[in-house]
Description:
This protein has 270 residues and is mainly beta. It contains two helices and 16 strands.
Amino acid sequence: MRPSTYLFEPGFFRRSLGEFKRFAKLGMTPSSDRVLVGYCIVYRKNLYAADVSCSFVATTLESIRVPMTPYHLLDFTDPETITTCKVMSDADMGGFSTVQLDQVPATASEPAHMRFHGSISIDLPPDRPDIQRSGYAAWRNKDRGPTLFGKSLWDVDPYLYLALRFKSDGRKYFVNVQTESIVHTDIHQHRLYSRRPREWETVFLRWADFVRTNHGEVVEPQNEMMTQKVRTLGIGLTDRVPGPFELCVANMWTTNRMDDADAYEKEDQS
């Protein structure tokens, strides 16, 4: 049997090495569901078993340690990251909104970042009577290639927050998360609130606060997000307000510490 060209495309070993380093840092083995933490052994919840159970065995009274260093997901200070993303808009079905991603280099006052911009149009395509609504734009990362450990998915289960360093124009953006859900069209969403429009800021979104949606509508039951198998991250604009938009993103990472923001504030000021 010969390995396929897809498996050995550029980046395969780089992704595999990154996964190996992450497993080593968390004290995990890729093929096991055990997490070794100090003198403790934690058996993780198996969401696929018919009888879902979670047991905990500890040999000492030491508390369980959680990751205290950030896990970077999409770092747009690296110019290569933007090449792993794709854009979507109503233009895909004949609409007239425009959308683009640009890489912006660092300056004395701003970090290197990705610029998501364009213009929203709510005009309907004249030759598509089946289209009743228009006026959206979005981006997300492309499905990542495989590694030696299998399909490339983000395991953010050990973390509490999704953090973003961004600059918004104040419009109604949503952070979108896709997982290896049974319903592949499900998207978990969280509103991206801006406290200081047109200024750089850092926001922390609890993974537990994301809402399950399908085709833009909240659906029931609100099942817990499969944070062990996150496939894509992205941001969408669906306020249907005609006119230009602009959102800049420097970094997206997951963490258990909200003081990560201090480090980014200092970097922007240096």
